[in-house]
Amino acid sequence: MRSTTKNKVRLLRAGAVLLALAVWQFAAWLLGEELLLPAPATVLRRFFALLIEKDFWRTVLFSFGRITAGFLLAFLVGAVLGFAAGRFPALEHLLWPFFSLVKSVPVASFIVISLIWLSAANISVFISFLMVLPILYTNVLNGMKSAPRELLEMASLFRVPSPRRLLLVYLPALRPYLLSGCGVAIGLAWKAGVAAEIIGIPEGSIGEKFYFAKVYFATGDLFAWTAAVVCISVLFEKLFLFLLGRFYARLEKL
User: Fold this and answer.
1) Under 8 Å between Cβ of 147 and 165
2) At a CB cut-off of 8 Å and minimum separation 6, what does 1 contact?
3) How far, in Å, are 37, 68, 195 from residue 188 at the CA level?
4) Distance CA 147, CA 179 (A)
5) C-beta neighbour count of 211 within 10 angstroms
6) What stretches of the chain show up as alpha helix (H) in DSSP?
7) Distance from first CA to last CA of the chain, Å, rounded?
């Protein structure tokens, strides 16, 4: 039954993708101007042409390393702060102004400010970290609050050590919150990180490629690099969530 449902979902998603491509093709045909909207085939050819260029992989590694570093740092800090705020409510109130500010201020403002503080090469690390941190912190905090009170009371009654409480009570409660939070956060990390690179224009970055595509009106390159960013983001999201799922699978066997 489950495999049948998964196959239906895959078919529906494949149909949705084909429909989107058909709409794109029709819009490109209607406009009749490659500069404004290149056809899917044109973008696909340019995308595969990029794949065989050495500069493409150097550029991808440059941005991937920094944006991933920002996300992983935010994951670590958000998990620690969310866990601590869940255990000590006073800390949640102390952190509230900071996270409210980060969620309210436009990302462009942070990018411009960070250009004053940091070198252009490291701006995507900081912006990815800053944009993702509130999401992961909030999800971990909500997961801590959802931990079963009766299990915590039982653990306290039988004086279960804190590491065992973490493994047996808190981490299982955090699972759905971490999975959903990371699913949103990874995409946002790439959006914010590449946006920061487009403004900061660090040499050898994906953002630099976007900037040059705009300057030279290379719309095909712009769409091809956009497709590359989407592919990298989706693949990294699936890999990270798979590893997180494996961690929880091992945890269940303890």
Assistant:
1) no
2) none
3) 25, 11, 10
4) 16
5) 16
6) 2-31, 40-51, 54-87, 89-104, 107-117, 123-145, 149-157, 162-165, 171-200, 206-215, 219-252
7) 29
> Which class for 144: exposed (0-12), middle (13-18), buried (19 or more C-beta within 10 A)?
buried
Report residue 26 CA to chain centroid gap.
Answer: 31
The Cα–Cα gap between 86 and 251 comes to 21
Written as one letter, the residue type at 61 is: L
d(CA 63, CA 150): 46
Q: Are 222 and 210 in contact (CB under 8 A)?
A: yes
* Burial of residue 193 (number of CB atoms within 10 Å: 0-12, 13-18, 19+): buried
pLDDT in tens, the chain (254 residues): 566 777 788 888 888 888 988 998 999 898 888 888 899 999 999 999 999 888 999 999 999 999 999 999 999 999 999 999 998 989 999 999 999 998 888 888 889 888 888 888 889 999 999 999 999 999 999 999 888 787 777 767 767 677 777 777 888 889 999 999 999 999 999 999 999 999 999 999 999 999 999 888 889 899 999 999 999 999 999 999 999 999 988 887 76
- The region, left, alpha or beta by phi > 0 then psi within -120 to 50, assigned to residue 201 is left
Q: Report CA-CA distances (Å) from 72 to 25, 76, 131, 245.
A: 38, 6, 12, 16
- Pick the closest to residue 188 from 145, 241, 124 (CA basis): 124
Map tokens 């794949």 to a residue. 51
Q: Give every CB contact of residue 119 below 8 A, 6+ residues apart in sequence.
A: 202
